[in-house]
Amino acid sequence: MKWFDSQRGFGFLVDDAGGQDVLIHGNVVRKFGQGTVAEGTRVEVEAVTTDRGRQATRILSVGPAAEASAPPIADLCNVSPDELLKLPVLPARVKWFDRAKGFGFANIFGRREDVFLHIEVVRHSGFADLVQGEAVGMRVVDGRRGLMAAQLLGWDRVGEAADEGGSGTGGSGGPQPARHGPQPRLSPEIENLDLPDDWNSRARRNGSADTLRIPRPFVLAANG
After folding, report:
1. What is the pTM of this model?
2. Is the pLDDT reported for residue 176 higher than 50?
3. Alpha-carbon distance 29 to 209, whole Å?
4. How far lies 46's CA from each of 49, 55, 65, in Å?
């Protein structure tokens, strides 16, 4: 993604093959289940050539930039890509998000707990911003400060990702805590944020922990 302006309703993609930039309208982004796309995000699209140039008609996939091989924040440094993909994709709605502050919170459907959203995780997942009430899919870990989004997906990807895997099922009694090596006591990306007092107090209580606990899968109750 070269740039995308959600207010103006369009942006441009740089062709990896070196061709002409590709225009992408906001409605194409919204049909993929996202309201924004971060600059530098890798986007695979179907495109057509018109009198005005090349234009994207459908997004096939959205992912981090090719050079973004490291986790977006240190708190996720011990979660491998394979472990991340095994986490269940949980349907959620953004409670609030402030790009200037660098964080926000979401709620998993049917649950009251707040899930922390770090701006670098949001960007790494391909979102430039989030709006209150926006529906997303999340892969979540339970860290020292509470539930934290490790990856976000556009709403239209929620069912697709669940079909591909990440059911979150484990042995008897459901998923067990995933034990990892020691982590930084407090990652600088989060330590420097002006977080709510309850989150900071939990971090102090759990500061010596060396685990990331994977939440039990969230399953929507069948209607009727």
Report:
1. 0.64
2. no
3. 40
4. 11, 9, 19
Q: How much is the mean pLDDT over the chain?
A: 76
Closest CA to 63 of 109, 120, 124, 112: 124
Place of tokens 């979660």: 79
Are 15 and 21 a contacting pair, CB within 8 Å? yes
- What's residue 193's pLDDT? 63
What does DSSP assign to residue 213? Answer: B
Q: Beta-carbon neighbour count of residue 216 at 10 Å?
A: 13
Instruction: Return the bridge partners of 25, or none.
Output: 10
| Count of Cβ atoms closer than 10 Å to residue 124 Cβ | 23
Instruction: Express each pLDDT in 19-40 by its tens digit.
Output: 899 999 999 998 888 888 888 8
Q: Which residues pair with 3 in a beta bridge?
A: 12
**What is the per-residue pLDDT across 111-151, written as a single tens digit (0 to 9) for each?**
888 999 999 899 888 898 999 999 999 999 887 778 899 99
DSSP calls for 141-164? EEETTEEEEEEEEEGGGHHHHHHH
- Specify the long-range contacts of residues 182-190, CB closer than 8 Å, at least 24 apart: 182/210, 183/74, 183/75, 183/77, 183/78, 183/210, 183/212, 184/74, 184/75, 184/77, 186/144, 187/73, 187/74, 187/75, 188/74, 189/73, 189/74, 189/75, 189/118, 189/120, 190/73, 190/75, 190/118, 190/145
